[in-house]
Write a structure and sequence with these properties.
67 residues, mainly alpha, 76% helix
Length: 67
Amino acid sequence: MKIVAVILLIVIVAVLGRAMFQLVRGPAGSPRLVRSLTWRIGLSIALFVLLLVAIQLGWLQPHGLTP
């Protein structure tokens, strides 16, 4: 489960880098830029939900939290 979370984080950073490249290279409102940022937001939300579900199901144990 931790590997999936790390892979998703890497993909999110890669998509953000691609969006930055498109922002520098082209116009600010280009469809490719908007699509890249939309993917980043979607992946970030998916990662957040996945982490919440994994904690609820006991797949991940958060550290430093006292019940």
